[in-house]
Amino acid sequence: MRIHEAAEVSGLSCHTLRFYEKSGLIYPIPRDASGHRFYREHDIRWLHFVQCLKSTGMPLKDIQRFAAKVGDAENQAELLLKILQQHKVRLEQKLEETKEFLNHIDWKIEHYQAIITEQTLC
């Protein structure tokens, strides 16, 4: 599929797709006989994975490092695993922090609901 279709399917702009390729977040996309980028199904899956990493806060330098090693001919499984495990630890820490924040917000909600209930009873 051409870049406009890939943009529609991925939810990214054509400009962003070109930027991702130029900055090494995705590997170089093959081109058709006319020189236009031609995205394949596995390119779209990779874009979704990059979006997942980016949306969950993985630093761009780590995504670039990961992307560079995925296409490497040598077995890079240990390094790739390490990058993902480190990211998972960061996400789990963020999740725990978010749960603490939610508990505090729940406590405040209960507090204000009690005030409102008390006021309506009076």
Tally of individual helices? 5
Structural class: mainly alpha
CATH architecture identity? Orthogonal Bundle
Q: What Rg is obtained from the alpha carbons, in whole angstroms?
A: 22 Å
Main sheet specs? none
Structural summary, described in words:
The protein has 122 residues and is mainly alpha-helical. The protein has a single domain (3-121), classed as Multidrug-efflux Transporter Regulator, Chain: A, Domain 2 (Orthogonal Bundle), CATH 1.10.1660.10. The protein is 73% helix and 0% strand. The chain has five helices and no strands. It has helices at 3-10, 14-23, 41-55, 60-70, 77-121. Helix 4 packs antiparallel against helix 5 (77-121). The longest helix is centred in the C-terminal third of the chain and has 45 residues, at 77-121. The chain is elongated, with a radius of gyration of 22 Å. The N and C termini lie far apart (67 Å).
